[in-house]
# Entry
Amino acid sequence: MTHHEHHHSHSHGHAGSAQMENKEKLKKLLEHWLSHNVDHAENYRKWAAIAREEGMEEAAAILEEAAQLTLSLNDKFSTAAKSI
# Structure
């Protein structure tokens, strides 16, 4: 009995499917991050108010700034979402 091998390459076209899966996943992640950042910013502002009531002005100001920076990230995430 003679033994021989067949070697060939072929494509299954999975690239398009993976690309669509990644696109949908990224859309969902961006939506999640947008919402999550709003929650974080609200929490930072809540604690800024508490810090201010306790006389911790510097901490309060830093938390307010962190809230603003967090929300500014949403501008980037929103732009990214629109580009998909």
